[in-house]
């Protein structure tokens, strides 16, 4: 195509402008969507499409209000009581959004968690916590093996605290998930490197959400979590295979025992039948021998004498 053909003529420009002015399809669709989402009323949408007035159109609909989250109704005293008594029904401690919880009470909860054997989740999100408020949590992670998930989002915890926390998680490697995003304090480079190193060395973490300034940190954390997930899958597969092998061995043992029992029963039946078949013969032989011994030897049997009686006929009275 030459340069002359690429130049738009005046007629083409006017036609393109007319198409833009006449193409109201996108605007009408936008207005329909705004009406569906309760941003403007349909009368206001028609007013905009008519274009009779150049003044801006304000929505007459009431402002939308989003439903607020329900208040956290966790009974802190009851939670502390269950922790001290090692209650097996206590699996979750949820103090999210409870900013008015006294710090001494939080410390008592953490101290009681050390010896609790059933707790699995701890949620301290949006509580306005600082490092000194929950420093006892590091001791909990080092000693408690039942805790799996920790949520510390939206607080004022420093990078040094999280470095100690992730290093404490290396003791047992039983923590599976740690949430630590949206902290009001920026992490130093040294603290970030220590956190990344501890996460990469941990083979138990499956989910980690934390804000890093270093791009290599996000990449290494993703690699570590994928690696740990693959390790878990391999372990589950091996456990399933071992369970199947055990079941097969137990079935084989039960089958061998059943066959042995059947063979023993058959042998017993055979011996019983032999004994029963031999007993009458022996008894019969003994009886025959006894009968022969009782009979006298060299004795000729004489026939029984037969006596014939003579029958005399009486004369009848009618005979002459």
Range of strand content: under 5%
- Number of strand elements: 5
Main β-sheet description: 5 strands, parallel
Query: Any idea what the shape is?
Result: extended
- How helix-rich are the residues, as a percent range? 40-55%
- How large is the count of helical segments? 10
Order of helices and strands: HHHHHEHEHEHEHEH
Radius of gyration: 51 Å
**What is the terminal separation in angstroms?**
179 Å
Which structural class matches the secondary elements? mainly alpha
Named CATH topology of the domain at 76-229: Leucine-rich repeat, LRR (right-handed beta-alpha superhelix)
Q: Identify the CATH architecture of the domain at 76-229.
A: Alpha-Beta Horseshoe
CATH homologous superfamily of the domain at 76-229 - what is it?
Ribonuclease Inhibitor
Residue-averaged pLDDT, rounded? 80
Unreliable parts = 282-290
CATH class of the domain at 76-229: Alpha Beta
Q: What spatial order of strands do you see in the largest sheet?
A: 1-2-3-4-5
Subcellular location: Cytoplasm, Cytoskeleton
Region (Disordered): 47-74, 238-320
Protein name: Tropomodulin
Organism: Strongyloides stercoralis
